[in-house]
Write a structure and sequence with these properties.
By secondary structure, this protein is an alpha/beta fold. The chain is built from six helices and five strands. Helix 4 runs parallel beside helix 6. The longest helix has 22 residues.
């Protein structure tokens, strides 16, 4: 019997993929594209530049450079999605808590699912640094698909 792919969200829904250009988020983009194909969904690619006033005062110009790099990355994601015959919008935010921007975008857009990579931190690193992914899971208004690289 042939494998039949079933859409786990509503058809023509909205997929928010959080990406930072890492290998982990590249895998998330790949899975978001596959999911969008099966579900006839639109993809919203969001990138968050982590910054705060102290950081900006210590390294003037660096935040703008990081934001430019994030925009370029998101445009590359959009090109990849468009090449697959799907719709994609890009969203860039700048702030201290990336998970808050991801969750707020999901709420604002009425997203059906958030797709994001997991950096796979364990032990003390996870406790000390926190995890954007685990915070998104804890606050998301919708399902979250976590993709390992």
């Amino acid at each position: 019997m042939d494998d039949v792919l079933i859409c786990p969200i509503k058809k023509s829904g909205k997929i928010l993929v959080a990406t930072d250009g890492s290998d982990f988020s590249k895998a998330a983009v790949y899975q978001a594209i596959n999911l969008a194909k099966v579900c006839s969904s639109k993809i919203y690619a969001v990138g968050v530049v982590e910054a705060n006033p102290e950081f900006e005062s210590l390294a003037p110009g660096l935040v703008e450079k990081m934001e430019d790099e994030t925009r370029k990355h998101l445009e590359a994601v959009k090109a990849q999605v468009t090449k697959e015959g799907l719709e994609c919008e890009t969203i860039v935010h700048q702030g201290e808590e990336p998970y808050e921007f991801i969750v707020e975008e999901a709420k604002k857009l009425g997203t059906d699912i958030i797709v994001m990579g997991s950096h796979g931190r364990t032990g003390i690193k996870r406790l000390l640094m926190g995890s954007v992914t685990s915070r998104v899971i804890g606050h998301a208004p919708c399902a979250v698909l976590v993709v390992k690289s």
